[in-house]
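#random but structural
TW: two for the price of one
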Amino acid sequence: MKVEIGKYFEGNHKKLDSIVEIDKLWAASLKKCETHIRFRLKNKTLYGAHTHIRLGADPIEYYLTYAYDAILTGKWQWKDKYTLSQQLIVIVDSTLSTEVEKTHTKKAKENTTVFAGEDAETMFYDQEPLPGEEDQIMIREILFNKQVSVIEEAIQGDNDLENFWECIKEGMKRVDIAEFMERNPKQIDKLRERLIEKIKDSPYFEM
């Protein structure tokens, strides 16, 4: 497999070559970066943008390897204002955000369901897309993203509802959510009711 060389390859390696104990620096820097990744990905690798299935590798290993390769291949510049560990962390944080954005963009394009006025069962378990004209796609995306933002703000701090909502966004069905959250289906229905009540309390929705 041919490695693609980035425009910062020469500059990065000149800086790396100037360091006497570069192996020790790499080891310490990668360790700090790994700790940072573990903190950032806490409880976020079971579903969503950072899953093993989506990334094709262990999430921690994936982002750590990406940052390491980005420096070595010159894809990213090791800037003078950063230590090696700081630069690795900058790369990781940027890549994490990029992967989340990819996921949100994909879902926004695929999801054409407008929440307001939806039957609750359809809204939370089926999520079948509604047919619509192409010139309305952008409007639906804006509306969808705003509604998601409002819901997530309303349930912030409630771990059960946050986990339930993440399952809904992943398109999981009632039985799958119950298995994932280690609850029985009736308990999942109660969570759904609580979530609907949260939404009803928001001025952005008319339920």
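TW: number two ↓
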Amino acid sequence: MNHALKVALCHSTTARAHLAGAEALYLSEAGHCDEAQSARRRYWHEVSAVQLLMGHRWPEAEALGVEP
């Protein structure tokens, strides 16, 4: 995978993460807790994917979107 492709994938994945984060906020404010939690997990999954593309392992990211 060349550098330009990797950068484009990181930008795309980051944009998806931002959309999931915005969706989580909207759903939380609307009182849809289960859907908001799912969107938060998608957010952290996307952020983790970007880190992995950049060569950094971040297994804790999956747990960050889970509420107690």
